[in-house]
Specification:
Blueprint lengths: L1 H29 L1 E9 L2 E5 L2 E5 L8 E3 L1 E9 L9 E7 L4 E7 L8 E9 L5 E8 L4 E4 L2 E5 L2 E6 L2 E9 L2 E10 L3 E8 L11 E5 L15 E6 L11 E4 L7 E4 L8 E5 L4 E9 L5 E7 L2 E7 L3 E4 L1
Parallel strand pairs: 1-7, 9-15
Antiparallel strand pairs: 1-4, 2-3, 2-5, 5-6, 7-8, 8-15, 9-12, 10-11, 10-13, 13-14, 16-17, 18-21, 18-24, 19-20, 21-22, 22-23
Length: 307
């Protein structure tokens, strides 16, 4: 009888130990997130000064305890000397933090995107964008939302396109999948535009899908901004076409965004204008003309008035 009692007690203790171990493992797992780091060129990655490998990191899964870390990306030596980058990142519990770095010879011309999610209340989504330097223009699905730093609230969950533009810096474009009840945080280091005559600039535009389950599917995409056309400079004042997210600017039949598209003009081109008008949103529109031909209207958001 005593043997049966001891056996029963031993069995219960064994089961209790197994349950405790499972809970400990489960709790540890729930306090971890995934880290994914990609770079061009291939680089060594350090997390709080600890070397964790070479890019790409986390293609399958790289678990990190939730918290704030210092991430350093050091390009591997080669024929070209690239500058390193170091910055703060946040790892969320059961979430994925995605880092995409386009390294360059100078830190000023290096571009880095850091994306992660934060839990919020409600069933809508939010987008938080910070840039270095700040005061960059943020467009959500081609609609201007304001200047960085900015939080865009009450965004419908689903697929969206975020575009960041700033005069003198390369445009950044991201395709994201917003999740109900989460804020997508994008911390971007912008790269200075390199000026190379008679050559097309290329924008590295990472496309990312983020969700609480930790699925960010980055698809790097190269988008040519196009070359600058050479035309005779018109008499002042004239309209200088600035860089745009698409590499061109739509010309429309009227001074509103909903007017029919009639043509395209490219960054760097210069046009005389017949007149200007302001729409209900406060945007100034320019009626362009070439010689004596009226081309149509363009948004002043991407126009510099040269006097």
């Amino acid at each position: 009888m005593k043997q049966k009692i001891f056996f029963l007690i031993g069995t219960l203790l064994f089961v209790a130990i197994i349950i405790t171990v499972i809970k400990m493992v489960s709790n540890k797992s729930s306090k971890q997130g995934d880290l994914r780091v990609e770079s061009n060129p291939t680089s060594s990655v350090f997390l709080d000064n600890k070397h964790i490998g070479r890019t790409p990191i986390g293609e399958n899964s790289y678990k990190v305890d939730a918290g704030e870390y210092t991430l350093k990306i050091v390009p591997e030596s080669g024929s070209t000397q690239f500058a390193s980058w170091q910055g703060k990142i946040t790892i969320g519990s059961n979430l994925l933090t995605y880092v995409k770095a386009d390294m360059s010879e100078s830190e000023l011309s290096t571009a880095v995107d850091v994306l992660w999610l934060e839990k919020i209340s409600g069933k809508k989504s939010e987008i938080s964008v910070t840039t270095m330097p700040d005061s960059a223009t943020v467009l959500l699905d081609d609609e201007t939302k304001g200047m960085t730093p900015i939080i865009i609230s009450d965004v419908t969950p689903g697929s969206h396109t975020i575009t960041i533009t700033s005069q003198g810096f390369l445009t950044r474009t991201m395709k994201v999948q917003l999740t109900p009840g989460y804020r997508l945080v994008a911390a971007l280091k912008l790269a200075l535009t390199s000026i190379t005559p008679a050559k097309a600039d290329v924008i590295a535009s990472p496309s990312a899908v983020a969700s609480p389950s930790g699925t960010i599917k980055p698809t790097p995409k190269l988008t040519p901004t196009g070359t600058t056309s050479v035309i005779n400079e018109p008499a002042k004042p004239y309209a200088l076409i600035l860089d745009t997210p698409t590499g061109y600017l739509n010309v429309r039949t009227g001074p509103v965004k909903t007017a029919t598209k009639s043509a395209e003009v490219k960054p760097g081109e210069k046009y005389a204008y017949e007149k200007t008008e302001e729409d209900s949103a406060g945007t100034v529109w320019y009626e362009l003309k070439k010689d004596t031909t009226i081309l149509g209207w363009v948004s002043g958001q991407y126009v510099k008035n040269v006097e």
